[in-house]
């Protein structure tokens, strides 16, 4: 589904990613772990199509097509979803307006009929329940005045509504207490499926107790320095990231 | 240098009763003496009317050349074309809603509105309007009466190079309540000049909601004045929308003349293309416990330029006044410009006043967030722009006019990143 080859990315001349290789198949859940400044979030943003990054070498193929020339909305319409580390507040745009506009934009792009307001409410009802959100969330401005946990749940609600093929969750666990973490994890787990791949970008392995990954990759200095199964995450948890120092040459970038 | 011929010619065509002919003549002479306002005046620093001197301006043909295609107005309607009343659709009696000419001089005249002409002041453009207005409109709501439907006054322009002087007088008697919509429009391809003056008197406890929409042609010049006087515990709520005009200027002079009066002034202006738009607000708290709240949102695209100039003056003895101003503005192109100039002058005690003015650009992070959800760039931009101006559109819900207005407002929102060439 996703093939990243030798990806080099810089911001303003400063190298952040220094040759990423990663292959993800449908149905898989991958965790990308690493210390602050290792380039995790950059990788997530580059995949979603954020501009301002210089892609100096390498390639990214998604569903066997070159991903890099596509705009963010083209990527989203092709099934890529990024749950933001810091979801934006958009005063004056109701959550329901964002959700329906986004869904219908994607449906149009796929040649499907748009959903009217009534059908949409029906469609979104179960998704709200899944994330323990009540109807009032639909009519509030996007993330405005939401608590940290509500914002993260709202990201997963968007994911549940848009049903992406490749979901990238950027630090979705950060700032969540244990209850909120369980709700979010439950939401994500219910979206696991044979056609859908999920990438969890995280600093801590705590999230991985609830969303069990198929593979874990450790990113350091802009490279994947270790890949393994779930046990790698546990090893990181007990030893921290410092033990990687002798294995990888760190290029610490400021976050 | 102004050539008086066109103005004198226009005056000669007005068939005014004798007692007003002298007043009109005198107003015209005052205008001719002062001339068009120019950049020497502080309030006219940014905008120029020089182009008017080069236009073959003239009073419109009489009767009008063509009848307008009237749109649906959800309420009572007086429709004017080139300063002539061409359509009347209302069940209100002529004593409540009719032409100003009838109200102050004609057969339907009951009594001349006492305050007529007393609020508008004596700036040169106001003198010109006083000299050359033709039929005008007059709305008088009797004490305690509440109009169930909005009253629409449509002022349309159809003749090229016409100069038009809509004149409106509104008298809200004690405890009355109404919704007034003034709608200025014109044929899209012609140049003309609308120079309207509206005076509004609110007696004690009266309530008026006033929508004023400048949707003039992209080539037109609009220089409008609204003057409002509020008695005790009256409420004036206004939404001023500037969506059209090559040069569009609106001045609002509001006096909270007696205690406990409340004013809410909302506005949205959009300066696209090479247009210039200016909003000048003069709010005077003259009496204790007045409350004024101003909330304007401005957009400038391409090489458009906007000015928000809001001045609140709290006079001595206007104690316990509350005045809040907010002017937020977005620039949508590197060549657009908006100047926001809120001012407070306070000469009373125990006053709560604040103002906030910002000029910024669309949030790139928010645009990326929306596009990462599969929303195309144009739609994302539109969502953000609509959200931005929506803060100033609360009166649309209170008046039930949101469905009527939003399509035209949406049509006026700048689209895409298309920019004018630099030349």
Concise summary:
Chain A is an alpha/beta fold and 255 residues long. Chain A has helices spanning 40-48, 72-77, 95-109, 117-130, 136-139, 148-162, 178-190, 230-239; strands at 2-11, 14-24, 29-33, 54-62, 65-66, 80-83, 90-94, 141-142, 166-170, 197-202, 215-220, 223-228.
Terminal residue distance of chain A: 29 Å
CATH topology name of chain A: Rossmann fold
The spatial strand order of the largest sheet of chain A comes to 6-9-10-3-11-12
Question: How much of the residues of chain B is beta strand, in percent?
Answer: 35-45%
**How much helix is in the residues of chain A?**
25-40%
Overall 3D form of chain B: globular
Salient structural properties:
heterodimer, A: 255 residues, alpha/beta, Rossmann fold, six-stranded mixed beta sheet, four-stranded antiparallel beta sheet, 12 strands, 28% strand, globular, disordered C terminus, B: 423 residues, eleven-stranded mixed beta sheet, ten-stranded mixed beta sheet, 21 strands, 20% helix
Question: How would you summarize the topology of this molecule?
Answer:
The complex is a heterodimer of chains A (255) and B (423).
Chain A: E1 2-11, E2 14-24, E3 29-33, H1 40-48, E4 54-62, E5 65-66, H2 72-77, E6 80-83, E7 90-94, H3 95-109, H4 117-130, H5 136-139, E8 141-142, H6 148-162, E9 166-170, H7 178-190, E10 197-202, E11 215-220, E12 223-228, H8 230-239
Parallel strand pairs in A: 3-10, 3-11, 6-9, 9-10
Antiparallel strand pairs in A: 1-2, 1-4, 4-5, 7-8, 11-12
Helix pairs in contact in A: 6-7
Chain B: H1 5-12, H2 18-34, H3 50-54, E1 76-81, E2 84-89, E3 97-98, H4 100-105, H5 124-132, E4 137-141, E5 151-157, E6 163-164, E7 167-172, E8 177-186, E9 193-194, E10 197-202, E11 207-215, E12 221-230, E13 235-242, E14 247-256, E15 262-271, E16 276-285, E17 291-300, E18 305-314, E19 322-331, E20 337-346, E21 352-361, H6 364-371, H7 377-390, H8 394-399, H9 402-412
Helix pairs in contact in B: 2-5, 6-7
